[in-house]
Amino acid sequence: MLLPYVASKGALIGVMRSLARALGPDGVAVTAVAPGLTDTPASRTVNTDESFDATVARQALNRRLIPADTAAVVAFLVSDGAAALTGQVLCADGGLVLR
């Protein structure tokens, strides 16, 4: 059952948005990153090559995600380029949410 997982993600988004509103006047930006299925040793313990392939087939980008993909999004968020961004969820999921 995915209910606890889905509920926890919704709660995190609510907390992030509340913090963005509360801390914005002090110049603090709060943003969330939602990575997709990422090829790591830990994720390979619970996902088969078939499940990775099935996920990639549903993504707009036809490749497995790697930790550097998420790290690049986080690096952007701490850069001056993200200075006006707050209260948003950045989905680093290869375009899975588009399908």
Count of runs of 4 or more consecutive helical residues? 4
Average of pLDDT: 95
Radius of gyration, CA atoms, in whole angstroms:
15 Å
Q: Output the CATH class name.
A: Alpha Beta
Q: Identify the overall geometry.
A: globular
Poorly predicted spans: none
Largest sheet: 2 strands, parallel
The total count of strands amounts to 2
Structural class, by secondary structure, is: mainly alpha
CATH superfamily: NAD(P)-binding Rossmann-like Domain
Reported CATH architecture: 3-Layer(aba) Sandwich
How many domains comprise the coordinates? 1
From N to C, what is the helix and strand string?
Answer: HEHHHE
Helix content: 40-55%
Indicate the CATH topology: Rossmann fold
Strand percentage lies at 5-15%
What would your notes on this structure say?
The chain is globular, with a radius of gyration of 15 Å. The protein is mainly α. 5% of the residues are buried. It has a single domain, classed as 3-Layer(aba) Sandwich (Rossmann fold). It has a two-stranded parallel sheet. It contains four helices and two strands. It is 46% helix and 8% strand.
Topology:
Layout: H1 3-23, E1 32-35, H2 41-44, H3 49-58, H4 67-77, E2 89-92
Parallel strand pairs: 1-2
Quick structural summary:
By secondary structure, this protein is mainly alpha-helical. It contains four helices and two strands, in the order αβαααβ.
Sum up the structure in keywords.
99 residues, mainly alpha, Rossmann fold, 4 helices
